[in-house]
Amino acid sequence: MDISDIKKNKFWISIGGGLVFVIAFYFCVVSPFQSRKTEEMESLERLLTRLERYETKGHMIRNEKWIKAEEAKLEAIKNIQQEYELFYKERDRHLEKIFESANGEEIKDEALWENRYIQGSNVLLGRIKNRELPLGENALSLKQWKVKIPTWEEILPEQKRFWITEELVKIILKDELKVVYLEGINFEMENAVSTNVYTELYDIIPFTITVSMNAESLLFLMNELLKSKLSFEIKTVNISGELNRFRVTKEAEKSSRFGQPVQKRSSRFPSIVDVVIDAYVLDFKT
């Protein structure tokens, strides 16, 4: 073998070695790398397809920032709700009280409670009489058990109705309202259909107020109801005028024992309207 043959063999050996290296490099490095990239691309395409289907259904794609913002919002709502519940439960405390005895203790005897109820009812009627305010028949819907002593099942709801009546009378007798006639404070029957949709939080005690008063004081009346220590909620307010003027005049004539002439009443309150308010009290479950 001469030198030229050796040179030719070296050349082909080099070419062969290079091919072997390239082939080995491809199978050992490039091919696995391409396989991984292909798998990653396929995985990414599957993920994009799922996201597209998810978005097509109207769902939002939520990231970590959005989730944290929503969690903060929910926490703020929860805190506000707790403050709201504490506020109304504090007002509900006035509704849950039971009559107290002379020594300041809560009355636990049914007969003693009935006596205290009668005393409280007479006090309310006395306040109205002192103001010379004409009343409709059974205007305050006060309970009378006669010879029967009430049970605690009867006492508890009647106690709450008494506190409501007492608070309403206190409001109605305010000088600013210029109420000239109280037809009645009436509570719905026990078997009436309730409109309360939050029964897990509270019960409602519906009632209706019917009065004749100066029209200019109507907003003051509603304001007094809403800022009361009890949780009053107003449903509807109905107002009529001319019909009420006739009735108030008629009641004034029938109520001569109050010693107030019809002419004086009419000149003092020329804009008398008949007001019927349907409302209820929130009775929270504690």
What do you see in this structure?
There is one protein chain. It contains seven helices and four strands. It is an alpha+beta fold and 286 residues long. It has three domains: 49 residues; 30 residues; 179 residues, no CATH class. The protein has a four-stranded antiparallel β-sheet with strand order 1-2-4-3. The longest helix has 54 residues. The N and C termini lie far apart (111 Å).
Gyration radius, rounded: 41 Å
What assembly state would you assign to the polypeptide chains in this entry?
single chain
Main sheet?
4 strands, antiparallel
Helix/sheet category:
alpha+beta
Number of domains: 3
Shape: elongated
Key phrases:
four-stranded antiparallel β-sheet; 286 residues; transmembrane; single chain; coiled coil; 7 helices
Short description:
Strands 1-2-4-3 form a four-stranded antiparallel sheet. It is built from seven helices and four strands. The N and C termini lie far apart (111 Å).
